[in-house]
Structures are given as structure tokens and as C-alpha cells.
Fold this protein.
Amino acid sequence: MPPKRLLVAPLVILFACKPPTPAEQMDSALSWVATARMAGDAWLRHTTPDKYTREILELCQQTLLQLGTKLLKAPVPGVDTASLDNLLTRSRGHIAQMAALVTAKNSPGFRQQLDSLISDEVLVKQFADSAESKQ
Amino acid sequence: MKKILQLALGIITSVGGFLEIGSVVTAAQAGANYGYKLLWAILLGTICLIFLVEMSGRLSAVSKHTIVDATRERFGFPFFSIVMLGIVAVAFLVLVAELGGIGLSLQILSGIGFRWWAIPVSIAVWLLMWKGTFGLIENGASLLGLVTISFAVAAVKMHPDWGSAAHGLLPTMPGDGKAKYGFMAVSILGASISPYLMYFYSSGAIEDKWDESYIPMNRIIAGFGMTFGGFLSMAVLVAAALALQPRGIDVEKFEQAALLMTPALTHWGFYLFAFSMLFACLGAALEISLAIAYFFAQGLGWSWSEDLDPSRDARFAFAYTIIILLGAIPLLFGIDPIKVTVMSMALTSATLPLAIVPFLFLMNDPIYLGKHRNGWLSNSVVAIVILISFVLAIISIPLEIIGG
């Protein structure tokens, strides 16, 4: 192996072994909000079954709860933690409502919650971008 | 005519049996995170696999030995037992991942959690092994696995930018996130170059009674089958790059990957994904169970053949029975099959030198291969594989253990 690679490999390992940064956790939160949105869009287009849609929305909600707790413990530098927590809590609420509305087969109500989630997604993205720029 | 049919079947089953949970998950994660940028890793892994599979078939056709037989005979039992320990342990983890993949596919179809499927799935796999023949396992599951071609249909229907995709076939480094990118490349290579496939293929050549006249056919099956299979892996990556990356979705859970084909194929996309994974993982679970049982039987000198009645090779049948039942246990405890997949891909990388170094010696031994020994090209490719696997091992294991 070339000497340069021998030096780089341990650095790569060290760099990768640190726990996820708050910015990475923000990216993960954005990914789960986006997942809920995609699953919601798919359900409205009748492309996914009810059981699966409920299951993935519940998974999104649980994962966002865990990520929110972690972000509260290790705040993102330069980000208003209280606003972020409010936003994630609100997003989880929309996702929980969507899961319930799948059971009720209430498409108009579901669409309303999905629209609200889409607005939240824009804000989560702003937080994620801000966290990345300050990393 | 019979050989032409065998050739066609060989290529078709290689394509249908190419994808499994490791290749799908790693390609989907790569596409979702880096777009087309990691296509080169699939290309490299596929080229390596073509050579390794061709060599496995050639060794069996010429020497009438499986890789396991020849390794034990050439290097002695003490060395062989070290190889066996490493390979079987990792193959077992891959089996757990595949059984979990079947369970997860059934979970998204039925809404019943994957752990509830652990026992029924294991019994179904065991029954297929107990009642089935080698032909059924080799061809049946792989023919069902042809449903995975839907990944290619979905990728094409999403109109990829072919220029950017072609650019992704050349290795590049991203501006930031190099460590994650490197780990993704490592996982893809680990998923592509699976030693169990070599052991299964070489045992299959003996089961099918190959001789030297099969060498050209072996070359074509390995070349075309693995190439088309590699294209399917690339299709998964392209589909993820088009469906998930623009939305900012990373694939941390199986449920997220299930949305992969819905933008292109609507409700068919969801069911095609579920059935693709179901059949791909079923085929892989059968092949791995058989490969592990072959390893024990050939290594310990037991009578073996999937075509024999279990009463005539009882220890061989006992080996796969125990392995399949043990494979269900971690899933019963709710271990996430995706985490097992990622771990097993890294450990696969670590065990590649263990599998490939002795294999290289065998492939150059005139006692086993006579005039059909490796040429410079095959040797160079195997040497590169060993180097890659070494780098894979030293990078991926710490990443996995410490939590990269």
C-alpha cells in the first residue's frame, strides 16, 4: 500500500468513529420528516397499502422523538434549541395525525396534515443547513 | 442442445440470484447519499466476482474437487479449520440477515412484525432444503428472483442522466464526508464479493457433474450472469439516487427502501419491491444454508449432496437443519436485520483474504488444474481482490465495532 494511504486510513477510521455530530443528527431528522412526506404522498396516490403506511409513519414519529431527545442533550451550536424542539414536536404531531387518518381513511384531513408537514420540512431543512454551515 | 439450455438457465439464474439484502441495502444507501458517485464500487466488485466465480467453476470442472475439498487436501486440516471457522461464522451472520430480509419483506406486506416471521420462515427454508433438490434450489428461487429486474425497469422509467451515471463509474472522492463515503464503498465491495457464492458455485459444479467440456460454458455463465447481476445492483443505486436523494431521504431502515420504486411504478412499485426482496433473500438464504452445510460436510469428510435423500447424508442434512434453526434465534430477539447486514458485509470483507489467498494457491497448482491453471490476468485480478479485501478489512472492522 502506498505510504500516503497508510497514513490516511487511520485518519479516516478516527474521523468516522466519532459519534454522530448534531449536524448529522439534524440531517437524520430531515431524512425522517422527508420519509413521512414521501410515504404520505404515496398513500394519497394509492400506491402504498394502509398497514405499511401506518407502520412507516409510526416509525418516523418514534425516530424523530429519539433524535429530538438527543438534540436536546447535545444542542446544535448557533441553533435555537427551543425552536427546534417545538418544530420537531409539531412535526411528530402531524405525522401521528396522518397515521390516525390512514386508519380512518380520511384523505382530505390527511392532505391537510401533510401540507402542514411540508411547511415544517422547509423549516427543518433551514435548521439542518444552518447546523451544517456552523459545523 | 442440452448445454445451450444449461447455459441459458445458468445465465438467467445468475441474474435472478444476484441480488440479496446486502447488495440492495448498500446500493440503496449509496444512491440515497451520493447519487451516482459510487457506481464504480459496484463495477469493481462485479469484475472481481466474475473472475472468482469463473475460477470456482473451473477448479471443480477440471479437478473434480470443490474449493473446500481442495483446500483441506492441499493445506491440511489445521489450516483448513481456521479458514472454516472464519468463513462459516461470517456466512452464518449473512444467513441471519437474509432470513431477516424475508421477514421484513413479509412485514411490509402483512403488517406483522418480522420477529413473528422468524420461525415460519426458517421452517419454510428448511422444508425446501429437506424436500428439494439442488436443481430446485439453484434454479427455482433464482427464477423467482427474476422479479428483481423491476429495479432496472424503475431506474430507466425515472429517466436517469446517463452522462452523470457513466461519470459515476470512475472513482471520485467527495469534497466532504470522505469517511462515510469510504465506508459506503467498503460495504458495497463486501456485499458484492461474497465467499459463500464461490463455495456454493464450486459445489454446484460437482453436483451437476461438470467436466472440462464445461469450461467455456462456465466462462460465459460467470461473465454474462454476473455482469447482468451487477447491472441490477447499479439499477438499485440509480433508482435510489433518483427517488430518494432529491428528497433528502437516507436509508436507515428497510421500510424507507420500500418507497424506492413507487415514484416510477406506483402501487406496482411497492409490491415489486416487497416480492423482489422476498425472493432475493429466500434464494440467498437457501444458497448460504447449503454453502455452510457443504463446508462442514466436505471439510469433515461426510457424505454430501442436496440431491440425496436426507437419510443417506444424515450429517449433511443435520448441519443445515441446525444452522437454519440457529439463524432464527437472533431474529426472535428482535435484532435489526439491517444492522446485521451492515455488520456482516464488513466481516465478509475481513474474511476475504482467508478465503482468497489459499484459493489463489490452488488456482496455480498444476496438480489440480494442469494446463487450466490461472493466467496472468486471473492472477492479477485475484491479487487485486486480496489487496482490496485487506484494505476493506482494516478500514471496515474498526468502523463497524466502534460505531462509524
